[in-house]
Write a structure and sequence with these properties.
Elements: E1 13-15, E2 18-20, E3 26-30, H1 37-50, E4 54-56, H2 74-87, E5 91-95, H3 101-107, E6 110-113, H4 121-128, E7 134-137, H5 144-156, E8 162-166, H6 184-191, E9 196-198, H7 200-204, H8 207-219, E10 224-228, H9 246-257
Parallel strand pairs: 3-4, 3-10, 4-5, 5-6, 6-7, 7-8, 8-9, 9-10
Antiparallel strand pairs: 1-2
Helix pairs in contact: 1-2, 1-9, 4-5
The structure holds phosphoenolpyruvate and manganese (II) ion.
Residues 32, 202, 228, 238-239 line the site of manganese (II) ion (MN).
Length: 263
């Protein structure tokens, strides 16, 4: 059960020996989308050098417009596997439909459920039958209780390896892409024992806001961060404006090491 009543201690989700929800901060980083072999390998190597513990990268992309780049799909998963072989970094990538679960269980280390699928209950139920770590993003307009109930759908099937991810919510403010709800961190910690990771990239939509929001998330008690990094943000096929260049990611990691213990 996701409710802290049933589990007073913080839970720790183990991803190939990396503990999310322990004392140390886990940083996942990489491009919004896998674009080419050169791109994903180059970004994987630079985020590893910068100190990331895991590689993120979308292969199946939930885009607002059907005419936008939809991801490399299965080919993207293949390229992520190559990047993992090259760097040793575990892979975090988004699933969009239950018919791909077998493939994801085989190839991926953390299965991401995107904001748009937070209440895709059939998908959540199927993921509950696996024992893979699931990164469950908060829906665009979901309350904290709805989000925890979605975690419950996964856990009710027997999979306790759920990591929550706050990625900004819809508010009246349009200056930022979304509004980072930092209060979700203490709220989740009060209501649940599950670890929580913050995505300052999608929350703000602007690369120059990522560093201050990442620091604020750690100060508020987050267990980790998921950050978009691209080797050439100006030409990124998705989310370039919010992506850090590798050198800026390395700078951010240096700053974070001054305020927290990072894995
Ligand atoms: C992503 O991580 O690239 C993504 C699509 O995130 P979200 O589901 O939070 O919009
Ligand atoms: Mn993105």
């Amino acid at each position: 059960r996701a409710n802290r009543m049933f589990h007073p201690e913080d839970s720790v989700v183990d991803v190939n020996g990396i503990k999310i929800g322990g004392k140390k901060i886990v940083v996942m980083a990489g491009p919004c989308s896998v674009e080419t072999e050169e791109q994903i390998i180059s970004v994987a190597k630079s985020v590893k050098l910068g100190g990331a513990a895991m590689l993120r990268g979308g292969a199946f992309k939930p885009r607002t417009s059907p005419y936008s780049f939809q991801g490399l799909k299965e080919k993207g998963l293949e390229l992520l596997k190559i990047a993992k072989q090259e760097t040793g970094l575990p892979i975090v990538t988004e699933i969009m439909s239950a018919d791909k679960i077998e493939r994801f269980v085989e190839d991926v280390d953390v299965i991401q459920v995107g904001a748009r699928n937070m209440q895709n209950f059939e998908l959540l139920k199927e993921l509950g039958k696996t024992n893979k770590p699931i990164l469950l993003k908060r829906g665009l307009s979901a309350t904290i209780e709805e989000w925890i109930m979605s975690a419950e759908y996964i856990m009710a099937g027997g999979n306790d390896n759920v990591i929550l991810c706050e990625r900004g919510i819809r508010t009246f403010e349009t200056y930022t892409r979304n509004t980072l709800d930092l209060s979700a961190i203490p709220a989740v910690k009060k209501l649940s024992h599950l670890p929580i990771v913050i995505d300052p990239s999608h929350a703000s939509g602007m690369w120059w806001m990522v560093e201050p929001m990442a620091k604020a998330a750690i100060a508020a008690g987050a267990d980790g961060l998921i950050i978009e990094v691209h080797n050439d943000p100006e030409h990124a096929l998705c989310d370039g404006a919010q992506s850090l260049k590798p050198e800026r990611f390395a700078h951010l990691m240096g700053e974070l090491k001054g305020i927290a213990q990072i894995i």
